[in-house]
């Protein structure tokens, strides 16, 4: 068995080599790049905020060009959100239809059409080239690798489901979407040749101004799927406003994510996508000096990428106002709506000055959505323009119950479109999954065998990174120490490390200095680290969705990867969903795991997110039993405290205070 591990490891790693670097490969971390932007760059002179629509004009106050009559791009998709006619959008901000009606056309005329956006920020604030650092380091670290090995064909036969009213059709190429010359140039710089399936579907939906709940597999390009339409909408929209003399900024777009590192990463991506468009992205997250972030905000912000805790802080200090928000994106949305984040999210979205749903455009993205969130979206108010399909009143809502989480989701969306690329919560077949039965005391020696196999096979180095997930922060420290003592260069990331330490660890992992990263769930979601060829679940999580996100740190952007899990009695509640997931992803399920799964089902054990009967691949507005309020999920009227979810220990993952994920 161990020999087969070694083979798998070797195969996965040579395959990682063979497939080459991802489109945006770099061996510098997002944090590094951020630091480069913030620290190394010469500090630009403080400047008054200049809104995007004015930034690419000559210093003399030119009038906007006459709307272009150029029909050449008329056949292309153009953003719907508030697309103005005649280049002016003022006065249109209050109706429910704000940003909903445009079907293209008028918006492109601002400033004489996309072609006239020469790019660049206001002359007084220098925009650092987000690609410069990357190009340099890419040459050094990944010499000889080009972005040609990305196997996006692997996604081609994935079933796609969309539902909702009047779903805009997907596009086939980036050329089919009128994102503008500057964004197109950035797509080229990113070396994106064609849109991934989630991008093909989501971008037209979002450009049409519709709310969206989108689920697509890890590593399939969701970040660009929500960033491109936001950038494009901002470029075409009204200028961002700020009262003269006020220190409060009012960005038109807010992207929330659950961890600091993910926020940094999204910000880096947004900076690339918006380079020379005049759209300015700023990041704010906890653990870093707030003064620096305040100064950055003062220079102007169109897209604020933030973690919820730090955002609440900024709102309380009145340094940010949400009154002009037109685009709200929740990345890792299911996590953001989970118990741990709920108070902050509800506060941000409902209790501050953010325009209500219907007046802003809301987008929820994740690789996993528990079915309760989908059902909630259906039940409480996103059914259609006339309002909720069902009144929420008859249902008892207990805080800390899944229904509470469901209500939260529904509070955000308006007449949304549901998009599922692949089965909701599924894992890509690009990841080879192995599960080994390993008793607790044997785990370290098994791990050692795996790592030795990698070393022996000669693929141990910069381009073959191994991510080891453990359950606790203490466990992470201890395993890191143990590995280092045994000659394996390792570092760790978890919630007890300072932000500086976390960013340093990530950097040294990414650049291969310490090719083993021991992590808690703080690194489970969203992080896009090139060359992670092996994810080891040293401790399995309690929740199958967490497993999906963890293993999704490998096998990204069409590349293959390997995921190994150590399973024992302590993980028996995960046996069934794990076996199902593996089966669905065409993986070999060991007999002993199937037996565990069967035994577990026979006495009713079930992981809350698995739900046995699957929550996958469909919009729950179509589920008549749910619609009627009866059936499996609403029967009993017990406020969701028990039923299928009780057995799995709801909240046992992130709800466990021992497993802090740094969300601030
Ligand atoms: N159209 C494209 N062509 C080539 N590469 C792409 C394309 N779109 C995205 N990528 C690359 O694919 C990788 C994964 O993208 P991204 O991080 O957005 O995935 P994701 O779906 O958000 O994953 P997760 O669910 O783990 O958060 C990134 O390196 C990104 O640059």
UniProtKB/TrEMBL annotation:
Ranges of residues in domain DEAD-box RNA helicase Q: 172-200
Residues annotated as domain Helicase ATP-binding: 203-387
Catalysed transformations (reactions): ATP + H2O = ADP + phosphate + H(+)
Motif (Q motif): 172-200
EC code(s) of this entry: 3.6.4.13
Region forming the signal peptide: none
Comp. bias (Low complexity): 12-52
Biased composition annotated in UniProt, kind: Basic and acidic residues: 616-625
A Pfam family that the UniProt record links to this protein: Helicase_C
Regions of compositional bias (Gly residues) in chain numbering: 83-94, 101-122, 628-637
Domain Helicase C-terminal residue range list: 455-597
Residue ranges that the Swiss-Prot or TrEMBL entry lists as coiled coil: none
GO molecular function: ATP binding; hydrolase activity; RNA binding; RNA helicase activity
Region (Disordered): 1-125, 602-637
Record key words, sorted: ATP-binding, Helicase, Hydrolase, Nucleotide-binding, RNA-binding
UniProt-listed Gene3D superfamilies: P-loop containing nucleotide triphosphate hydrolases (3.40.50.300)
Family affiliation: Belongs to the DEAD box helicase family. DDX3/DED1 subfamily.
Record protein name field: RNA helicase
